[in-house]
Request: fold
Amino acid sequence: MSVTPKKETNTAAVDVVTFGCRLNSYESEVMKAHAAKAGLDNTIIFNTCAVTNEAVRQARQAIRKARRDNTEARVIVTGCAAQIDPAQFSDMDEVDLVIGNEEKTDASAFARLAVEGVGTERIRVNDIMSVKETAGHLVEGFEGRARAFVQVQNGCDHRCTFCIIPYGRGNSRSVPAGEVVTQVRALVENGYSEVVITGVDITSYGSDLPGNPSLGNLCARILKLVPELKRLRLSSIDSIEADPELMRLIADEERLMPHLHLSLQAGDNMVLKRMKRRHSREDAIAFCQDAKRLRPEIVFGADIIAGFPTETDEMFENSLRLVEECDLTWLHVFPYSARPGTPAARMPQVDGRLIKERAKQLRDAGTKRSAVFLASRVGQTENVLMETETRGRTEQFAEINMAVPARAGEIVKTKVVNTAGSLLSGEACA
Reply:
């Protein structure tokens, strides 16, 4: 997996370098707000990812470079990799302090840091499994972004054999719906046209709340109580947990974007069983068919792991065929990376060269499917959310270049005129 860190700077001279998922991006904004309020300065915070060994390696590399470039700055490391293995960062000479995933969104942690400094306590990481609640945070905006993210859930109750993230995020816990609605309303009032619902396992939303509201219930409430919101988008979902209300919204609610990113991981039933996933390949295909029937224009992205332990050529072919059988458009391919402490790391491993070759085949299949989809949009009219003055995203999350500049954050009715590689090109409708 290639991880591109995002460096963001605020007026309090606090830099936040973010690796990994959209939830980390959201939490980086929370940290920036807390750091600014506490009056921190000359500080670099690294918000790490633990999904793959490569993600951890890149974070460590970025930390070393940052220290060479900023010899006097305070360097703080947090995020999933820091939560899971804080010592690997505290042992680095370049690091002043390691804080956990719970601490990083706690305003008091930053206030304490501003008053007391780093001190001799280089690791401030609590037991994430002891955390029972996830607080909502009022984030006013997202620097340099046309869309906003809202965390509705954190942690995961499932224990897929390849995944280390529950040990970095803890068990599943949900933000009460009222707090979510308040956050969405505030973002809309600040000019955001699109809000992305994010979390670790958002389809498990509500299982820990009174009345056990579902993700579909939450989305329906947002759309009803914030009628000014133009676009609501979901981050990655576990299709086996999609509830009836969510399927109703897919069918009937135009403001829910026709784009779902699915946590599929594999297309072979034996591999799925060894992963301890809760769906079969038949379940995945049936879900995509049902969603297409309800919303014909919907597109799917998906996470797929190449080279999971014990994966044979035949098993891999089942994953490869799933790309077409589920009509997947945006593919995220992860070469399997053994994470120490996970059950999959103890299984018979696939040769690394074979993993790379299978990942390439999956990416090539994904590229072909996305090209077919992009070609089908030529001549169509799209509502494009501008991310920069010249580039935006359609409702189906296709990236498009615009012939005439428009304001970032504006939704522009656009005629698609051509494709160029992985991009559409378009012109604003008169």
Q: What stands out?
A: DSSP finds 13 helices and 20 strands in the chain. The chain has three domains: 6-126, 148-376, 381-428.
